[in-house]
Amino acid sequence: MTRPDLALRGDYFDGRTGLRHAVELTEPAPGSLAVQGDGIDRREALAELYITPRLARTSRTIAFPDGARLQLADDPRLDRLFPQRNRLETLVDRLERHYQAVAAAIVICLASLVAGYLWGIPWLADRIATHLPARIETALGEQVLALLDRADLEASTMAAERQAQLTERFAGLAAGLPGSANYRLLFRSAPTIGPNALALPGGTVIVTDELVELFGDDRQLDAVIAHELGHQEQRHALRQALRSSFVAIAAAFFAGDVSSASAVVVAVPTVLLQSRYSRQFEDEADRFAHAHLAALGVSPSWFAAALQTLGEEVPDDAGLAWMSSHPSTQARIAAADEAGVAFVAAHPERAGDEPAVVLLDDADVATDEACQMCAACREEAGCADDADCPDCDDCVPCADADCADCADCAPCADADCAGCAACREEAGCADDEDCADCDDCTPCDDAENACGDATLPAGT
Amino acid sequence: MHDPPIASPGELPALPPLPAEPLIAAAPGAPPPVPHPFRFDGQAGEYFRIWIVNLALSIVTLGLYSAWAKVRTQRYFYGNTRLDDVPFEYLARPLPILVGRLIAVALFGAYVIAGQFSLALQLGLALLVALLTPWLLVRGAAFRARYSSWRGLRFRFVSDYAEAYIRYLLLYIPLLLTLGLLYPYVKAKQKAFLVEHHRFGGHWFAFDARPGHFYPPYLIAWAVMTAWIFAASLLLGAVAVALHASGTSAKEPAMGLIFGWMAVFYGGYFVIWVFLAAALGNLVYNHTTIGPHRFQSRLQGRRLLWLYAGNTVAVLASAGLLIPWAKVRLARYRAECLNLLVAGNLAAFVAERGEDVGATAAEVDSLFDIDIGL
User: Fold this and answer.
1) Domain containing A422: what range?
2) At residue A357, what are phi and psi to the nearest 5 degrees?
3) Using a CB-CB distance cutoff of 8 angstroms, which residues of chain A are in contact with residue B350?
4) Interface predicted TM-score of the whole assembly (ipTM), two decimals
5) CA separation for the pair B70, B6 (Å, rounded)
6) What is the pLDDT of residue B166?
7) What integer is the mean pLDDT of A372-379?
8) Both A240 and A264 in a single domain?
């Protein structure tokens, strides 16, 4: 029984030469296929033939057992001849032609992209981090330390007694933490990095000499170390390393096929995605620092004060917040200050012990008005520098990182300085303006130091 | 990898003088060669549906389906590439590809993760991969050639591991010793290796470019890049000095300057890279012949730059959804620029001898047919 409706045309190649034969296909009897024309005349059982699965409008090929191939345009009649030869690809082909399936595929792809990033990679990385032997983490930390020592870090120039003193404070801060046995504090000088503290995998915390020198009060340093201990307790360094690796692998995989479209396609998203994980870890470590300080009876405001001092030294670039590895300093100060307020509420007996933290809202940061006032005020008063200029108190609000002048006037508003208040009291002045002697206590920006002793005699 | 398998010199990125058509070794009195254009008929919308469905299936199956996805993708690009109105065919089956992928993923994953833990370990792995590269390269070329066909005839890559190790490993020693000056020479040797070990229809592919042909494009690219970096540094240095003089705090513009410098540097690198890729692509194809026929490639740096830049922006802005559009655009332009100058009859190709290996031998062979994208 011939099917007259089946008369397909195609190109027949015999598999031995490149000769093209224009042929016609018919089904002379059910289950068999005839190929005729251009010197070709053969008949095959359909069961002996293989047909390539359907794929969009791409031409189909019928392969003969002897290597001959017949290429022809896709046609629905072919699927009646060769029903369900390749179930999987037949199904996939159907999906590719269905708009609903395509829409579902878009949703699946985008959703898994987002979900993989938000939960998949963190989950996988954290699982691995949990099961990784501590030995490997320690070895990783040693590697990083060796690299840093070669590149950016130099031996500390800090006095041995001071190092011993700070090491002791560190031990006090770490005491009682689950991982404290592995924690150690290292001192390094870092002219290129500047004031900073680092938490390496495996429990090592590095503080730079520049950081220690920057802070007027050791409680600021304590606060920063509490933050680094937060990184250690939650193994952030290792987890970040693993997450970054997975982001890099995933990005390379997705964009690998467009490799020719340059590395930008891969690099930009990779950096952006990695930095978000990093910001999350910073937030976690901040929260840990707040809680840990409070538990030790130290107001979290000290962390705010530390950030503020750091912020004056190292301004952050608000415009690049979304690719920054740290959250905005202003937001971190505000959070720490809030924790400080809560702390004072819970421990009223400690009130008065916390540092002055100047909260700025964005509007203040944006304008330099206060700063210009600062310079103007000094000029007006004819002072060479802030120490000579009593009016300079007015410019405290201008802690604006953008304003170079302002850094100079910050020390003179030092509320931490017990000596200052004492000297004023002694001299019986209501405020600094009335108190000529008060200038003397400007240099005393160290709360621990016996500044009162040094300045009082001068006042009395 | 979506290049048609012609001479499959991989991702070819040719500027050298287009050989004028009479260059073809035509017997005196023979009719002049007839240019046969390559054509790519794929459509972005159509390929998008294939791509997204196959990607979703790959995700849902945790990557296992990706081998099937690759075969469908390759079949789409091969099947829509035509020469003399005959489409190319991709014949590979998914399973060997799956095996190859699993190995590649394991290697790459180990490499990246090792980098986070131990530099020594990563270097060790990199060295291992470097030692394996020539072998992988030959296996990959053999795999792609074996599973590419046209007019019912398969391509063939004749493996020569010793030569591969010389050109992809040993030559790097003098390259290092000459501080990179030999780079164009090494590239020329590598391209010649890839082209000349391919066979189709009873003919060897031949490559008649000399290493000297590779020097001008590279030297121009290097000179332009150097001038560009110099000019950019000078300009940004001036900006920095101006900013400093204007009294702005020194810390703040520093970041801006660094980002500015990087943007200018990578922008210049990107532009030069694209022009170099066009020049080298033309160079390789224009010096490739098969039997009496010669290839002719007319990629234009400017067009290619426009394509790549547009693709990059589109892919980034669409969270990757325009990747299919980018790939189709590129494939269409590449095919558009490629001709086969046919001298005589295209049907005169015959099957490679020894191609009709028994099924068993083919199966055993295909166990080692690992396709690793390099």
Assistant:
1) 414-460
2) -115, 130
3) 16-18
4) 0.80
5) 19
6) 95
7) 49
8) yes
